Amino acid sequence: MDANVFNPAPQSQWNTQNKRTLAVVDAVWTCLLRVSLGLFILLGPYTQAAPTSTHLPGEDDAAGPEELVTPGQLRTGYNYLTKYGFLPKPDPVAGSLRSQAEFYEGIRAFQTFYGLPVTGTFDTRTAQLMALPRCGLPDIMRDDDEDGRRKRRYVHTGAHWDKQDVTYRITNYSPDLTRSETDEAIASALQLWGDVIPLNFRKLEIGTADIEISFARGLHRDDYPFDGPGGTLAHAFFPGDDLGGDAHFDDDERFTVKAYEGTNLFIVAAHEFGHSLGLGHSSDLSSLMAPFYQGYKPNYVLPYDDHVGAQSLYGARPGSVPSRGGNTGGGAPGPPDRANPTSEPETNPSCRGSYNAIAKIRGELMLFKGKTFWRMLEKGHPLEGYPIDTDRFWDQLPTKVDAAYERIDSKILFFKGASYWEYSGTTRDPSFPRPIRELGLPNDIDAALPWGETGKTYFFKGDQYWRYDEMERQVDMGYPKSVREKWDTAVPTNMDTAFRFVDETGTWYTYFLRNKKYWQFDESRGKVDKGFPRSFDVDWMGCPEPASNLVEDSTSRADVVVEPPRTEKMIGSGADSARGLSYLTHISLLVLCSWMLTG
């Protein structure tokens, strides 16, 4: 056998070959590193996983439950949310522990009920609202609705007095006021309701009355003790036997009349008597039946929300329907006088022409067309007796408004041309109309869409939209933007109006209208549902099916973007293509490197 097989090559020859091999390997790895880095930079955005959710325009990332609260806040929050119906009462038999996750669910229910941004955390605005003096009655009856949603803002229990003459008696008096001051405040608070419903209230000096009124401290003759100054001011019971209808006032409060200091007896009593009549709490913070103390308000008139709620139980007192120049306190107009009707058109007016504006106001859908409007509580069921003229309801409101919406502070805004109007209920605020340019918005807007959870309102015109911050009272930076940029490209531009509505399952949708057609935008997916557009008149107003329900004319299609939306599936497909390209490129590099090593 050749000895050279076992003898290493001469040192100089080995060094030369080794250096050449190391140089080739170093070159190959440098090549691979540079190309791989380049591929990562170029293809990285395409190879990332597709997003798992779609953020709706204007939504900010809310702080999550990981933002923990202190034990004291947790205990206080639990007690409050349980007392007022946002959490179920703990089971004393099971003795189950309550988790922070349950606490956050209760916070979300509270925020949803009162129209606050739904952060799910014990934030400043939530804490401030919870700290206000208030009525002791729960906001949510646990057998009614477990998550805080309401189909309408006013809430009634179904309990009511089945007679027109209701008696009341003041069993004792507050030391803060004279008897005559207390008598006058109580009588005025009852008459506030008596002005709009067909009930008569009669005071008894002795005997048993339907509504027994008393002042007490701490533990008294029910299971709901008072808590001293502040906190719970009073509570009342719904119509019924025994305690039914009775109203109790915390005598640790300093009650006053016709004064801003102290606790105004009239406003507290008027709220409690709403319960005595059968009304629950309202989520409309401007409503008398909102649970929080509102303070002294001279010349107080019953807000619209409460007017509608009371009349839903008892009907209207003759002459209580607000009209132009009449009661501006706000109330639901009754149907037109059918004994002397105006000339009836040959076809249903709801089936002729497009709507100028549609808005969710006080929990109801209000649809504006020309000088008239309709009201609707459920899809496909406009209220009987409508349309009626807008000026029977909103004094000095122009006809053919461009847009309308209810702001988070319960003010109602209308837009037309270069001006906008602001109403408190049905009463126009005296400093309006004002120029729309003050808001940083263009004239002649197409639609206004409030997004209550974020405190933002979207304004649309043509193919652009503006996002307006209701808290800062200004348009957000970076706007206007193209509708195609954030919304589904199937959403129409140059729309007639837009509104949000919740279906019977509690799911929220946004609806866009144009030329009597509507598009249903699924807020959870951030996309227009399949099968749209459809006929608004057929689906919502009960009109007969037109000859061609789903075909738009060429004019209405002219400005619809027909390119497909960038869906998650498309993003995923792009990622697959990019990964395939990356794989082939690396195979090619391996072949190249092999050639270099053997070259």
From TrEMBL:
Residues 157-316 form the Peptidase metallopeptidase domain. The keyword Cytoplasm does not apply. The active site is at E272. Binds 2 Zn(2+) ions per subunit. Can bind about 5 Ca(2+) ions per subunit. Residues 313-352 are annotated as: Disordered. Pfam families: Hemopexin (PF00045), Peptidase_M10 (PF00413), PG_binding_1 (PF01471). GO terms for biological process: collagen catabolic process; extracellular matrix organization; proteolysis. Ca(2+) 4 binds at D402, D496. CDD domains: HX, ZnMc_MMP. Ca(2+) 2 binds at D210, G244, D246. Keywords: Calcium, Disulfide bond, Hydrolase, Metal-binding, Metalloprotease, Protease, Repeat, Signal, Zinc, Zymogen. Zn(2+) 2 binds at C135, H271, H275, H281, M289. Zn(2+) 1 binds at H220, D222, H235, H248. The keyword Iron-sulfur does not apply. Ca(2+) 5 binds at I358, A404, A448. GO terms for cellular component: extracellular matrix. Its cofactor is Zn(2+); Ca(2+). Hemopexin repeats lie at residues 398-435, 442-490, 492-543. Belongs to the peptidase M10A family. This is Matrix metalloproteinase-14-like isoform X2.
